[in-house]
Specification:
Blueprint (H helix, E strand, L loop, with lengths): L2 H6 L8 H11 L6 E6 L1 H4 L5 H13 L4 E7 L19 H7 L15 H7 L5 E2 L5 E6 L3 H5 L13 H7 L3 E5 L10 H7 L5 E10 L2 E10 L6 H9 L5 E5 L2 E7 H14 L1
Parallel strand pairs: 1-2, 1-5
Antiparallel strand pairs: 2-4, 3-4, 5-9, 6-7, 8-9
Helix pairs in contact: 2-4, 4-6, 9-11, 10-11
GO molecular function, one term: aminoglycoside 3-N-acetyltransferase activity
Protein name: Aminoglycoside N(3)-acetyltransferase
InterPro entries: Amioglycoside_AcTrfase, Antibiotic_NAT-like
Length: about 270
Amino acid sequence: MSEAAVLARTSNGPITQERLHQDLTNIGLKAGMTLMVHTALSRIGWVCGGAQTLIAALLDAIGPNGNLVMSAQSPQLSDPQHWSDPPVPETWWETIRQNHPPFDACQTPTSRCGVVPEAFRLWPGTRRSSHPLVSLCAKGPAAEMLLADQPLHDPLGEASPLAKLEKLNALILMIGCGWETCTALHLAERRALPNAPRFSDGAPVIINGERQWISINMPLMDSETFVPVGQKIDGQSFMQHGHIGESFARFFPLQAASQIAEKLLRVS
């Protein structure tokens, strides 16, 4: 969305950190929460300070004892044979595999996650998990525990940061984005479809100080199936709906939503 379009949909002046804090409090955020956030910044309206202001408001709302988590995916490191938006010539594949910079938790940028997760990746004190394709970032007292030992071949399943978030009674905040963006529901998907087909992917990483291309046997995951599932979750009593700035928002517990999603995905 262009800045002009964002300005046009913003009423009552610039959206400040104070207003965001009030909206976040109204929807249910409290100090000490463990919170995973998905957001489309442009949907919120013209935020004075952009992503920096939103992240500051989120951290202020959950306080120093809270934990903030966001996706930090880097699909640009995946095997180029799977690229489709846009595809690259097959004659390029091996050159890319041999020359793309390896994953670095500090330096590798996020991709297709939006400006807020990228700004959060660079926020002082933010940590990042080690998966070269589907990492997560976190800040807070439990960040190191949440992100440790993310499985290479099943990064969003039972031993993943998502499962650890569930054990911490994490809540999910979705601001201006659809259910297909809800990374947290991949945990339910993996439980519902433990024997899902797998495909061969790969990524460049550093092993013992040397760059290597590694193979990754990833389960097929389909976030488009989250749309009808999310419609069922929207009607549950635990779901809080509200507005953050100009944007519609959803706020709900991961565990309760995951249980419903798992049942629905088993029969879909």
